[in-house]
Structure prediction request, 290 residues.
Amino acid sequence: MIVIKTISELKEYTAKNDNISLVPTMGALHLGHGALIKEAVKQKNQNGKVIVSIFVNPIQFGPNEDYNKYPRTLTEDVNFCENLGVDVVFVPSACEMYGIEENQKDNFNFSNNYLTYVCPPYFLVNKLCGKSRVGHFDGVATVVLKLFNLTGAKKAYFGQKDAQQLFLIKKMIKDLNLNVDIKSIPIVRDKNGLALSSRNKYLDDDGYNKALIINKMLTKVKNLYERGITNVKILFEEAIGLNNDNMIDIEYFEFIDFNNLENTFEAKENTLVAIAAKVNNIRLIDNLLL
Ligand code: AMP
Prediction:
């Protein structure tokens, strides 16, 4: 496995290897990322190569978000990738990625209007996570398109955990006629049902126990739905009742038609039940696809 830090080295590599599968990540890798990587390695064909990118993308973080505090565990991440049979780990710096001289970086505000952005349509962005994270999905779409261009990936692996991101990436591919085949991977959870997330590292015991309510709410919806209850008002109220003591600070708890991201009043196949909540000030997301 090789570790590549610069765009020129990456281009040299991809010029010789045109059968690339890409797994974009922000690092602090866990078994959720592992599921994406394992699938990419399993599905690669004979001359195929798997590239995992590790890049905490400044332009997808808002000014009051955790860009500086986001966990960075590069040595462990590189070992993790090597053990899973990855061919290349691409770890650019922010300056490398956005073409800024290192000595200029203090003058460059990553959230200003200096760059050409990819902006998914507002009606799909201004909901769920995009509602509170203004500009987030413009930053995501921009960096993902750059990674597609830099790697020439034929396949790319994304987690269902970031459901709105997955939807918007597929939309970008369709709208911009990109030749990338998107593979989505189900949410990986720990033994108590908490969706794995790099941000779980911030949870103490109290936060961890509170965070379990998120999956309990989703499981409640699933069980009721499987018993034939499809009325969203009922499903919503039954599930939200589990947070009676306001143990978690719910940002949204919505029932969405995953064909078009519209809210739905009747749960059915392909309804996305999506939650974002702050637990002791740590923002977590989770969802269930019916
Ligand atoms: P991140 O490093 O958080 O940007 O995540 C990189 C990729 O891993 C995204 O496509 C995520 O949806 C995916 N991912 C993160 N956590 C999980 C999980 N628990 N299960 C499945 N995929 C995940």
